Amino acid sequence: MLNNREWALLIWMAIALALLLSQGQLRSSLLQCLRAALHPQIVIALLAMVAWVGGLVFVASRIGWWEAELATDTAVWFFGTALVLMFNVTKALREEGFFRRTIPGAFKATVFVGVFINLYVFNLPIELILLPVLVVITLSSVVAAQEERLKSVKAVIDVMLALIGFALIAYVVFQIVTDWQDFDRSGALLKFALPVWLTIGVVPFVYLLGLYGAYDRAFKWIDFATDERRQRWRAKLALALRLRLRTQDISAFTVYWAKQAAAATSFLDACRAIDEFQASRRERQRAEAERQDALRRYAGVDGEDDEGQRLDQREFNETKDALRQLATAQMGWYRNQGGCYRPELSEILRPRFEYCGLPPDHGISLEVAEDAQSWWAWRRTVTGWCFAIGAAAPPPDEWLCDGPEPPAGSPGQDAAWGRRWGVDAKNW
């Protein structure tokens, strides 16, 4: 049976859904999301996960770890933790040690606190008021975290959340103490154990799902690389035998290496192509590890190396990537949207800047000339070093510069820019 907190959640979800369906534009967007969610691959994966979790529950019921009273808790876990893990499968493919971090996550204190505060709940009217209040406060904390100037506001909101959390814990403790004789201790223990063994039990499924997705993508690259059936099967077999269960390696397999494997004239040559891919990937990983080590080693160190590049390069790559994204967008807008550069792109591209690794308050300053025929942008990194990019003419014109201070004027007018194409920008 649902408790009052769960009923309150369902009631507010129903109200939110009704409001969404009452708005034509939102209704259309919701239907598009529903169609995307009903894609055969997603439906099959979802049904497979339901079957897997059903198997876990069956085994647990046989050994006394699960009983019918836990059905609601199991459903809540499934629509929360399980679905998040399933839809994070692409993240699991990219990140090293994802599954090693997921299992300890099942033992986090927040998991047990969530179970604890649900042992006793308030009556339905109070829960109906409490839930939206908590949602609003939590969302306010998330929004405040995006802005540096709202840090003090976020601190106040977090204190409020902590006080509410302590109040809920105190209420449950009081109820347990006053109701100790009738308190279902064995049932509570099962509730605490439920999210732990379910999360651990579903990790192998997520891994297998990720492995299938990685191989499916790699095999599609091979199919794209050649129409010859024999070459396809030879390359796929070599890929499977050489990479086996290494999901990160399989997901990193690109069309270039698919073409190399498909072009092989023998199975051994196809295996050599896969080995070359692995060696190339290991070399990139080694170079990235050295770069990260250098970032840590030279953090806060002033000076340059023998080639004139700064020693402390924190945020250098992220800043350059974001500025190049901006330059690419400016070229595209100029060519396709009326032959002018756009001043609003720094806000439009905010999600792209975050993808490049910059904080939400990205700090990129963008200037566009009054005639919209030239532009420039710059950003100061955490080290204090500045990078700038711009154009003084229609695409593909490009100017780059870097230095302790940003340029004071547009490309071609301020001497800080040096020559076109970044000839004098040593850190670019």
What does it look like?
The protein has 428 residues and is mainly α. The protein has three domains: 4-208, no CATH class; 229-297, no CATH class; 316-422. It is 65% helix and 5% strand. A hairpin with a 6-residue loop joins β1 and β2 (375-380). The model has no long low-confidence stretch (mean pLDDT 90).
Question: What would a concise description of this structure say?
Answer:
The chain has 428 residues and is mainly alpha-helical. 65% of the residues lie in helices and 5% in strands. The protein contains 17 helices and 4 strands.
Gross geometry: globular
Structure class: mainly alpha
The largest beta-sheet arranges its strands as 1-2-3-4
Tell me how many strands there are.
4
Order of helices and strands: HHHHHHHHHHHHHHHHHEEEE
